[in-house]
Amino acid sequence: MFQNSILDKKLSAYENLKYRANLYGIFGAEFKTRLNEITELLDLGAILKRPVYKLSGGQTRRIDIARALIHKPKLLILDEPTTGLDPQTRITVWNVIDILRKENGLTVFLTTHYMEEAGESDYVVIIDSGKIAAEGTPHNLKNLYASDFIKFYNSIESGYILGFFRKFNSN
Predict the structure, then answer these.
(1) Which residues contact 39 (CB under 8 A, 6 or more apart)?
(2) Are 71 and 35 a contacting pair, CB within 8 Å?
(3) Which element (helix H / strand E) includes 125?
(4) Rounded to an integer, what distance in angstroms lies between the CA atom of residue 134 and that of residue 147?
(5) Model confidence pLDDT, tens digit, residues 114-144
(6) Which residues pair with 163 in a beta bridge?
(7) Longest dimension (CA), the chain
(8) Per-residue burial over 112-138, b = 16 or more CB atoms within 10 Å of its CB, e = otherwise
(9) For 66-79, b where at least 16 C-beta lie within 10 A, e where not — what string?
């Protein structure tokens, strides 16, 4: 799935999905079954008949994801899939991907600028200026490069205010 949508904007969401499925030899009843599964997962029912140019950014992104999943891939490559999405759509996207990872054994290769999206990964590689800056499990990277601390502030009205901070080390 590309960072920018490559859907045909003049076609309906349904037509975009149908033509993509046809490229993978998915027709007729098999297509309808797969479309129903994807529609339920991504809550597409209300937008399938609409032309893509009339969809919001989040709706278009959900169709992009449906298009990438219509043929039940074993490997899903995502290039910044949630950039510019509203929080609700981001949650929906990651819930669907997590379900497919757990239930179907889907492998996801992800590029992102959002560290919280990489937090559920099995392995992370951080690239800076084209070079590997760090790699490992999210847990190990957090332990290596971040530390938590608590700071107390004196307040005349309420005594103390407690603040929780995460400090990132620049090793």
Answers:
(1) 45, 48, 66
(2) no
(3) strand 124-128
(4) 16
(5) 878 888 888 999 888 989 999 999 889 888 8
(6) 151
(7) 72
(8) beeeebbeeeeebeeeeeeeeeeeeeb
(9) bbbbbeeeeebebe
Could you give the CA distance from residue 162 to residue 92 in angstroms, rounded to a whole number? 33
Tell me if 39 sits within 8 A of 21, measured CB to CB.
no
Amino acid found at 68:
A
- Contact call for residues 126 and 132 (beta carbons, < 8 A): yes
CA–CA separation, 101 and 121 (whole Å):
11
Cα gap 56→58, rounded to integer Å:
5
Q: What local confidence, expressed as pLDDT, does residue 88 receive?
A: 85
